[in-house]
Amino acid sequence: MPRAQMPWASLGPLGPPDAIDQPDARLITSLARMHNRMNLSRWTVFGVAVFCFAAGALLTARLSQLNPVKAGSNRVFELRVYHTVPGKAAALQSEFREKVTRLFAKHDLQSVGYWAPTDAPAADSTFVYILAHPSRDEAKKHWAALQADPDFQAMIKSQQTPETKLVEKVDSTYMEPTDFSPMK
Known about the structure:
Elements: H1 25-64, E1 76-84, H2 89-106, E2 110-115, E3 126-133, H3 136-148, H4 150-157, E4 167-175
Antiparallel strand pairs: 1-3, 1-4, 2-3
């Protein structure tokens, strides 16, 4: 008699109560497959979690070494603010773009960045940049070399007439990074 015609068929795949002791092979096979998939799935999730943790730990360790604090480091930064003749900030930026940055590179003056204020009145008459120096002594040597350069002297000389004058005043401030600064 086919299973569908047995009186206990409506009781589900396990059959009559006394048939519970005789397990259905399909059910056991199905449960075993599901159990294997779950175990494989658990091991896969575990492996991915371990890999991610290890990758995150290595990345964190690497990022923390990007700017290590060096004991006894003399590195200094120089903030320079140029106060230009009103309306000449763009001309000074052009002079830096075309000439000064090349002279800086030639004399080991390392630029960190250049900025132009966006708000009036400073936007029309201010130019700001930062240099990084290995030490204060090296900064003095590099500036002396730049000022002795004939190309730099010619550029400065060309800005001495009232019509060609670009800069009224320069403020220079030497700075050292704090212990919590991301840039050292």
